[in-house]
Amino acid sequence: MVKIAVVEDEKKVQEQLVNYIEEYEKESGEKFEITKFSDGEQIVERYAGTYDIIFLDIEMKHTNGMEAARIIRKLDENVILIFVTNMASYAIQGYEVMALSYVLKPVNYFVFSQELAKAVKRVKSLETKYLTVTQDQGVVRLPLSQVSYLESEGHNIVIHSEQGTFSFRGTVKGMEEKLAGENFVRCNSGYLVNLEHVKRVNHNIAVVSGEELQISRPRKKAFMEALTNYLGGK
After folding, report:
1. Among 105, 107, 122, which residue's Cα sits nearest to residue 21?
2. Residue range 72-102, pLDDT digits in tens
3. Nearest to residue 182, comparing CAs of 210, 143, 134?
């Protein structure tokens, strides 16, 4: 499901954008979760990086769209921003915050749907290539190629990556399902390993980015088969 935020202080325009999104949802078969905000201040106040696409009105009374976009971009490098504006000249500033595009008011459905389709395509291209983690300081989106393994620690998952370690609430089983098809395999009940980072296997030990991880007896056959298939494919 694609999560969309609509930030627009004009009630009629806000409802129009929501209706357009719902209309596109019916036409395309995509599934959207829509959250509405009437000012930029509302969305940045407790921004947690939960949105894939944000439609931002540029001219708003308290915190305008451009100010909100600057704050959001500091917290989330990859969320897709699309400006909604009366004047194309305002949208030029969008390059500063890496906005995908803009739509002009009065908003035309066909133009809007084209931009939404483009944004959805971008979201899907990033879905299986990045792992998004919410931290106190903001949102971290890690390239999967930089993640060496995930470790279960109590009720948390610890990600070991080239950018450091990151912890969040979760289970190995849940992450295994989320990363299905991405060459992440369990070597035991507590570790989910990125096969790309397995340097060697010594008996019941997998050396992953310099760390020695135990391969459990019940999982050894499946792990070695997955590793062999991965290396054969490469």
Report:
1. 107
2. 998 888 899 999 998 776 666 777 788 888 9
3. 143
Residues of the chain with CATH 2.40.50.1020: 139-233
- Start and end residues for every CATH 3.40.50.2300 domain found in the chain: 2-127
Confidence band (pLDDT; 50, 70, 90) for 37?
A: very high
Instruction: Output the CA torsion 96→76→192→155 (10° steps).
Output: 170
CATH code of the domain made up of 139-233: 2.40.50.1020
Is pTM beyond 0.70? Reply is no
Alpha-carbon gap, residue 68 to 209, rounded angstroms = 39
> Identity (one letter) of the amino acid at 230?
Y
- Residue 102 pairs in a beta bridge with 83
Q: 99, 89, 113: which is closest to 68 by C-alpha?
A: 99
The answer to whether 73 and 65 are in contact (CB under 8 A) is no
Indicate the CATH number for domain 2-127.
Answer: 3.40.50.2300
